[in-house]
Backbone:
């Protein structure tokens, strides 16, 4: 069998794992690796003449069949990838931001040039998810995804839960341990998870979801008190990437914290582990869980994609037909204000008795049923903490309720998973 | 695109689900369905002229590209499948027994005739497992599998746990509800799970495991007292299909009940749900869970296999290269007596103080460390119930311990998962 010749752009954590893993695998030859700085000390020992600081020596290299892009971000990655496709190369990438923002252009370009772009590593790291959806689950209509797609935030929320610690304290610790970046915004504000669910929902629903229609809320406002109260009520708080689609193609796709019942598998996915729960017809409900990031787990997915290309390379004119991405149809976006959810509301009120009646009246006037309303703590100044769990109601109405609670402090408003 | 023409052998639960699912899918045409009795009333409405009571009208039909075998058992299924392959047809099957007993012959025959045999539905029903292992996980060396592969036994064990009921009572209820067969042997004695782990380990380890080397123990001796004590100790009892392979190709493959820590995902897989936990390099640990049986989940896998064939049919001479099964290498079997495990032992002893000393001495003489030894109940006749948890030790030694406890009743000896 001829060797498949690959070039890699980037030699960070994931690329190092890919390089190491490929040492044990026959029939794959690494021709060139593009890096920013050739002389930087690295954890992986790569022959000097394999390195270049000019990515176009990979992209334009006639001896390279597949370009593996592992630098992340939209630019210059998109420049490199689009040039490579035009040069007849297949692409393997772990670039979730590029897929979310340029997916449509990217897949149109690959089809135009009869090339494939595989990206298992971009979503949920090592967990097999993209290839299963596109192959063995192809006969399904998947209508719901609930997923934990960001290890950093899941680590922070797990630590807050286990240690009873505040968000700020755990973030600091996570930064010291290298689980969170110095500028944690991409993770803690939900951007990373939003990129991933955009592509995952597009693939699962077979309709293109646009990143600008994905509602996003991070975890920075979650208090340790919310964690404790959620636990008491039989829930955990997780940053959940949600996507549902109805029969008319209306796709409700969003990332935000949720109270999720301890009876579910997702509630027990802890620390940096990721998980994807999906529901569809005919399959029913499945949950896939595993490492969502890291050198070796992510390398597993990148190498799996490379081997899929290698298996068919040179044998057929139209390679990997199931892995192609045609999405002529676009999903219709659903505004968050039009969605229906259950809510957890934590309130500090000047007078417990009065406020319970007031909340009850405000909600009743909007036809919102309450599942429970509990006084948690009464302070010396006669203010009290109250926790409300609503039944399912429209988001715009619950926002009106919050506005009308004008003499109370609403500490938290968190959606509750069904 | 030309339609892929399929013939189905069998029209039971799974085949009905396949028939219904295919109604929504283009480019697949059902030509013929072989059944035992054409006139039997069915839940699915199939045109009369599509049915035949002669399976050879499917197997020998020149208008059929793919034969979908859904009758189960070795004969006559093997007759039909082997004849179909020789006639140039690709195979999709859900037949775990046939795969376990005839896998080697089957895959040699498909290679000889350049045909594929896909069997996602045979292992863990709807859970995507075979195709992921063979495609996106292909770069891994998987060295460990722990799985719940039989829904009937998992249902029985879950009900025993939840209701505090005896095996006999729950079995009876499960039979009434249709979760267990009138003759439950295939499920409760672990045959079904043994068939499945034989094939799953073969695929994951890339070395052929033989069914006769798979150690097997069922759940019929599990007592409600064992359930209660396991719970108290932080465990659940599950029928676990285990497979590990070492660097020398020694494969320890077995099915038996195990105490499994509540900290693991598998401990929370309840009722008829199945799950497969796998460990490998570079991926680390993943867990895939979902419906292990049933009309529609199993149909998802059968249809996924059909669509995989359809995607490449007629486009290449050597279809689905990653899904081929070559296993020139055989795994070396490991005898259960040579394995190392932790054990739970429940003993009823004539005299608690004496027996604790005696157990301690017998174990110490064999260099077996005890993790805990607890007196659970003292009866009026001065006998006592004692529960022992050992550290890891060799199976043959623990059997000697049981033999030497000659004046006690050993109620249960159950392995404990690490």
Residues:
């Amino acid at each position: 069998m001829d060797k498949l010749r690959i070039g890699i752009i980037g030699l960070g954590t994931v690329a190092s794992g890919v390089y190491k893993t490929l040492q044990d695998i026959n029939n794959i030859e690494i021709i060139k690796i593009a890096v920013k700085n050739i002389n930087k000390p690295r954890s992986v020992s790569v022959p000097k003449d394999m390195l270049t600081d000019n990515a176009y020596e990979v992209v334009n290299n006639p001896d390279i069949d597949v370009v593996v892009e592992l630098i992340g971000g939209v630019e210059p990655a998109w420049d490199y990838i689009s040039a490579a496709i035009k040069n007849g190369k297949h692409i393997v990438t772990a670039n979730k931001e590029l897929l979310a923002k340029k997916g449509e252009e990217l897949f149109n370009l690959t089809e135009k040039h009869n090339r494939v772009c595989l990206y298992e590593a971009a979503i949920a790291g090592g967990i097999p998810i993209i290839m299963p959806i596109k192959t063995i689950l192809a006969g399904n209509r998947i209508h719901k995804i609930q997923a934990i797609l960001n290890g950093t935030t899941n680590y922070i929320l797990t630590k807050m839960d286990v240690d009873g610690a505040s968000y700020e304290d755990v973030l600091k610790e996570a930064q010291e341990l290298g689980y969170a970046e110095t500028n944690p915004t991409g993770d803690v504000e939900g951007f990373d998870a939003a990129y991933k669910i955009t592509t995952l929902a597009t693939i699962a629903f077979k309709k293109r979801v646009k990143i600008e229609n994905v509602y996003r809320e991070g975890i920075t406002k979650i208090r340790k008190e919310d964690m404790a109260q959620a636990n008491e009520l039989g829930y955990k708080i997780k940053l959940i990437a949600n996507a549902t689609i109805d029969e008319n193609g209306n796709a409700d796709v969003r990332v935000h914290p949720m109270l999720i019942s301890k009876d579910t598998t997702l509630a027990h996915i802890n620390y940096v582990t990721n998980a994807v729960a999906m529901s569809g017809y005919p399959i029913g409900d499945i949950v896939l869980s595993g490492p969502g990031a890291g050198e070796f787990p992510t390398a597993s997915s990148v190498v799996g994609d490379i081997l899929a290309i290698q298996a068919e390379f040179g044998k057929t004119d139209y390679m990997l037909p199931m892995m192609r991405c045609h999405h002529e149809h676009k999903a219709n976006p659903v505004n968050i204000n039009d969605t229906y959810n259950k809510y957890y509301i934590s309130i500090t009120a000047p007078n417990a008795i009065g406020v319970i009646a007031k909340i009850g009246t405000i909600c009743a006037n909007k036809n919102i049923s309450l599942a429970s309303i509990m006084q948690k703590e009464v302070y010396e100044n006669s203010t009290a903490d109250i926790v409300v769990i609503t039944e399912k109601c429209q988001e715009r109405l619950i926002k009106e309720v919050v506005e009308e609670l004008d003499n109370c402090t609403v500490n938290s408003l968190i959606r509750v998973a069904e």
Observations:
- Chain B touches chain A through 54 residues (CB under 8 Å).
- The longest strand of chain B covers residues 250-261.
- Chain B has three domains: 4-126+295-323, 130-291, 339-416.
- The mean pLDDT of chain B is 96.
